[in-house]
Amino acid sequence: MKLFENIYFRRATAVSVEATRNPGSRFRKMESTDISIDILEAIAELAYRAFQGDATAIECLLADGKAVAEELWILGEKRPALVKPIAETTPQWPVAFSPNPESLKAISEFVSKIQLGAKSVISSNRKTRWTRESKATSWALDVISTIREAKCYFPLWKKLLTQAAMRDKVRAMPEWVSEAAALPELSKASSRSWADVGKRAILEVYPINHPGLASLGKKPWQEIREALKAIAAPT
Fold it and tell me: What is the span of the domain harbouring residue 207?
């Protein structure tokens, strides 16, 4: 058995949500957000090594991903009341995927149990033009994903920029990232602010004459803003 499989087995059994917390854990006195930052930093390092061709790093990423998915699965099965309020508002959830029909059936039953996406910001009203297939909605969903990632990674990015050893390895943070991190949750009232930050993020990557933006007509930013508003307050 490979080393990473042994590591995963220990994590999936001894460090499960049903197990007694290790009293000697270095994380015990840390805030949950600080633990998350450490994890994200470790994942980023493993991902970098994996892209450089480190097979062990790939195995570790696989094992860690499976471990996280397993813990969330157990938590959803044993404490659904804790998980549902979060699961209802997000359209995605990590699971240990397998093409086995029985596994697919179990996953389907699990996401139904936790009511995944039941109150998601994605409108389910297919009579409106702001559907998943709408070009404006597609851009709006990219804006939502980008801003939420900025909110998640901003603390880590900010922390790395304060470390002398990392300053030369981490690119300067665009101003829109800190503004994205400070945005309130997406709502009809905040959709304009989300659109303004999203516009700056988009233009950092794509030129103003990008075909995808041009396909939205003469007022692409208004289209994206209206799509964000519709997503935030589905009819």
Answer: 135-232
Asked if 108 and 153 sit in the same domain, the reply is: no
Q: Of 185, 199, 183, 209, nearest to 139 (Cα)?
A: 199
Q: Which amino acid is at 13?
A: T
Among 211, 207, 208, 186, CA closest to 197: 186
pLDDT in tens, 144-154: 888 888 887 77
Q: pLDDT tens for residues 175-208?
A: 888 888 889 988 888 999 999 999 988 888 788 7
Residue 96 lies in a domain: yes
**123 located within any domain:** no
Q: How many other CB atoms sit within 10 Å of the CB of residue 26?
A: 9
Q: Are residues 75 and 148 in the same domain?
A: no
Whether 165 is in a domain gets the answer yes
Helix (H, G, I), strand (E, B) or coil at 189: coil
pLDDT for 65-117, tens place per residue?
999 999 999 999 999 999 998 888 777 788 888 888 888 899 999 999 998 87
